[in-house]
Amino acid sequence: MTLIIGHRGAAGTYPENTMLSFQGAHQAGANGIELDVQMTKDGELVVIHDETVDRTTNGSGYVKDLTLKQLSHLDACYTFKQYSKKTPIPTLEEVLNWASQLQDSFVVNIEFKNGIIQYPHLEQKTIELIHKYNMQKSVIISSFNHYSLVTCKQIDAEIETAILYMEGLYKPWDYAKTVGAKGLHPHYYAVNSFILNEARLNSLDVRPFTVNDEEVMKNLVNDGCAAFITDFPEKAVNINKEE
């Protein structure tokens, strides 16, 4: 069975990385969500993709230069006028608290956005929250910063990690093992049947991003891909049922 993971929730339909979007993905039948984590000036973990708030809110400035209180006043639905002023930037704790109460086995893929800004103790703080809500078996931590994934494994050897990458990484199943990762999260251009088969033989799950084309979805389902990440989980869930 191919799992459907909502990219930033259901980012094609709702304001990305908001509780509206995460709830929308769950209601659409997604098996999980993917989200992005940055850190505020006062060391709080918040769910937002960019290093700045400019694109997705009605504010401006770097997340690292703003306190949680300052961020809480911003409208995270700014680009979706029909949802305007209905939800703020969520904290990671808020999302984990919500996800921990769901009845089904709901996956939360936490992507660290620490490739540009090195947030201090990001890994430790995140893993502490994961344990607080007993989400160890439901969370996957991914990052383009693979040093950060190694740090996660040093803190908690059982936490599942996945390498993010964009292009043709040679034998990614071998490389992933060097950083202790059990998942491959490539751009979908970097996935083919050979990669999927070799990863499967090496007990690694492949979860490509961001898959919005219906034909690509169908091919991944038919090839037995472990999961894929999409802006349109409702569409993907329907295709999954049909194939």
UniProtKB/TrEMBL annotation:
<protein>
    <submittedName>
        <fullName>Glycerophosphodiester phosphodiesterase</fullName>
    </submittedName>
</protein>
<dbReference type="Pfam" id="PF03009">
    <property type="entry name" value="GDPD"/>
</dbReference>
<dbReference type="InterPro" id="IPR030395">
    <property type="entry name" value="GP_PDE_dom"/>
</dbReference>
<feature type="domain" description="GP-PDE">
    <location>
        <begin position="2"/>
        <end position="240"/>
    </location>
</feature>
<dbReference type="InterPro" id="IPR017946">
    <property type="entry name" value="PLC-like_Pdiesterase_TIM-brl"/>
</dbReference>
